[in-house]
Design a protein that fits this description.
The termini are far apart. Helix 2 runs antiparallel to helix 3, helix 4 crosses helix 6 and helix 5 runs antiparallel to helix 6. This protein has 148 residues and is an all-alpha fold. It has two domains: 82 residues; 58 residues, Helix Hairpins, CATH 1.10.287.110.
Length: 148
């Protein structure tokens, strides 16, 4: 029986690691916030049940800003889609001169130079690395205009 339980645990962990490796950063962040919030609530309940009401209230007070930031963060993606996303869609008409400027190249640069500049800038501006969604979209658009 312990062997089956260990095997089942291993399979669940492997499945969870696979799901984690395919998950987006925002999903992992939201999951982490849920884990911390539920863990904090359980900790506060445990403290209250053992007669430590003051530390339980302190734990709940510390969870307040976390929950508030979570609520505020859950509202931001809708604002981002209507804000920055629509700017990229509306402002998608980029001239070749603008595209060269975005990539930091001189007009007439070769395809190799364009691809190298694109890779260099995306390493810095990619949202998964802490960069800007808007800037990454501009870099992508510049590459598409020049190589299109």
């Amino acid at each position: 029986m312990p062997l089956l339980l260990g095997l089942a645990t291993l399979l669940v962990l492997l499945w969870a690691l696979g799901a984690f490796s395919r998950a987006q950063v925002a999903t992992i962040k939201a999951f982490g916030i849920w884990v911390v919030a539920i863990g904090g609530l359980l900790f506060a309940c445990l403290l209250a049940l053992t007669g430590r009401e003051l530390p339980a209230l302190a734990a709940l007070a510390m969870l307040g800003p976390l929950v508030w930031s979570w609520v505020a963060e859950s509202r931001r993606p809708a604002q981002r889609r209507s804000g920055a996303g629509s700017r990229a869609a509306v402002g998608s008409a980029m001239t070749r001169e603008e595209a060269y400027a975005v990539l930091g190249l001189q007009p007439g640069a070769s395809e190799v130079d364009i691809r190298a500049a694109y890779r260099r800038l995306m390493r810095l501006a990619h949202p998964d690395g802490g960069g800007s969604d808007w800037l990454a979209a501009r870099i992508n658009r510049a590459r598409d205009v020049l190589l299109g």
